[in-house]
């Protein structure tokens, strides 16, 4: 199964599954966007085996393009791993201090954000589509982690996963104005006079949100793979029936 490993140390693994024609439904990982639920669970089982865990060590959310986040405790282990009904509801960011729990986020063009703080033993996974970005979900999560969980922003490392490139992320003025209203995204947008469309770099906007939250720029990595142009990418913009990548992160005890 095609998988990018962004971090793979003795106690931490973070990565992103990729489209793979050799796997069920091309390695689709999303129960909410599939043809056969049982095949998606089997894909997840195979990923769990690869990581050295079981599928019920995963925690998944029902993502709604919100700015909502949820702290995962040991009792939450397995939620949404094999069914949609028990997933964490209406949530687009998960974080935990618990070891041996695989946090997940699903995307097909949206920006997956994986974060960790080794001093605190904290990991997190964020789904930031353009709606989540203009709602500042990543920034708000870090504000929560600083203020409520007493984390030092300089101790975080962030991996921004593969997503739709600026070239392919073209929008009308209504979306452009939402990004412009943020007050810090102007450098990440341009207007194409030939098409009358605006082009936005969602990844760099999310990176800026991390920096505004106090994360050192040198602690932020970006996978610039375009999910539309790369043959191993799932792209909702290209195909409304596309599967989903799973961004995953786990800390081993």
Q: How does this structure look, described?
A:
With 253 residues, this protein is an alpha+beta fold. The protein is 20% helix and 26% strand. It contains five helices and 14 strands. Strands 4-5-8-7-9-13 form a six-stranded mixed sheet. Strand 11 and strand 12 form a beta hairpin. It is globular. The two termini are 25 Å apart. The model has no long low-confidence stretch (mean pLDDT 98).
User: How large is the radius of gyration?
Assistant: 17 Å
Shape label = globular
What is the tally of beta strands? 14
Query: Hey, roughly how much beta strand do the residues contain?
Result: 25-35%
The helix-strand sequence is: EEHEEEEEEHHEEHEEHEE
How much helix is in the residues? Answer: 10-25%
Count of DSSP H/I helices: 5
Largest sheet: 6 strands, mixed
Q: Give the class from helix and strand content and strand pairing.
A: alpha+beta
Q: Average pLDDT across residues?
A: 98
Low-pLDDT stretches are none
Q: Distance N terminus to C terminus?
A: 25 Å
What spatial order of strands do you see in the largest sheet? 4-5-8-7-9-13
